[in-house]
Design goal:
This protein is of the alpha+beta class. The chain contains ten helices and four strands; from the N terminus they run ααααββαββααααα. α8 crosses α10. 30% of the residues are buried.
């Protein structure tokens, strides 16, 4: 990721870590998602996460009794749990305009977590990677929905604005590339047509062609940069008629058909 992308992800994580659950049940759920303080998870070395653990633990009336009961928990508790789990076990990548979010958990936890998030409308894939369970979202829409539901605000808006900007730039580049290719084809075709017109004029065959062919040939010489549609509009003809006239000119020059053909 670029420095700007890394800074945005850091800002998003800091924003989520700064949230202060108002409900005791949400507080307990987030603590459950974070896991045991000072554990072996990578996130325990994160100062932002360490401060969050300390703050939540001080507010908790009592340590949670047993694992988080996902099936019986309210939706807001589930989102608090997932927020804690994301901060402790999740990572987000927005490199190259692609959004990728994953949780790294114990192997037996991966299918359970994938089923849980799918049950709340955020289907995920999972696999085992180097002995760890990995639950993944690669859909920018799903990642955005998840971050919104767990409380992301300003940083998420910035992320979505960047995604829209990248999409627009990609679409603009596609259109420009297509236009450039069309222009190149038009220039090449006009060059062939001008050469053919010059050849027919030099050997006298152009003067023997039907009126429409001669008119179109004259218009092409006067405006070599014009498109077929522009020539048709100028002459008051159908585009197909202009195209047929120029194709006839090229065919005559290429194959040397007899006079009056």
């Amino acid at each position: 990721m670029t420095t700007a992308d890394r800074d945005l992800v850091s800002a998003l994580r800091a924003e989520l870590a700064a949230l202060d659950p108002a409900r005791p049940c949400d507080l307990a759920a987030e603590l459950a998602g974070l896991g045991p303080p000072g554990g072996t998870r990578e996130g325990s070395r994160d100062p932002v996460l360490a401060r969050l653990e300390l703050r939540l633990a001080r507010r908790a009336a009592a340590p949670a009794a047993g694992p988080f009961d996902w099936d019986r928990a309210a939706d807001h508790c589930r989102m608090a749990y997932l927020r804690g789990l994301f901060l402790a076990r999740g990572s987000l990548s927005v490199a190259g305009g692609r959004t990728h979010l994953e949780f790294v958990v114990q192997p037996d936890e991966a299918p359970v977590l994938a089923e849980r998030v799918s049950d709340v409308g955020m289907a995920a894939s999972w696999r085992i990677r180097r002995g760890r369970g990995v639950v993944t979202w690669k859909s920018a829409e799903t990642v955005g929905l998840f971050l919104r539901r767990i409380g992301a605000g300003a940083a998420l808006l910035e992320l979505e604005a960047r995604q829209v900007s990248r999409t627009l730039r990609g679409e603009l580049n596609r259109v420009l590339n297509a236009e450039s290719a069309n222009l190149q084809r038009s220039v090449t075709a006009a060059g062939r047509q001008l050469a053919a017109i010059g050849q027919l004029e030099a050997d006298g065959r152009l003067a023997e062609q039907p009126y429409v062919v001669r008119v179109v040939a004259d218009a092409r010489r006067e405006t070599p940069e014009a498109t077929l549609a522009e020539l048709a509009e100028r002459l008051g003809l159908h585009r197909s008629g202009v195209q047929r006239a120029l194709e006839r000119v090229e065919r005559l020059a290429l194959h040397g058909e007899a006079r009056g053909a």
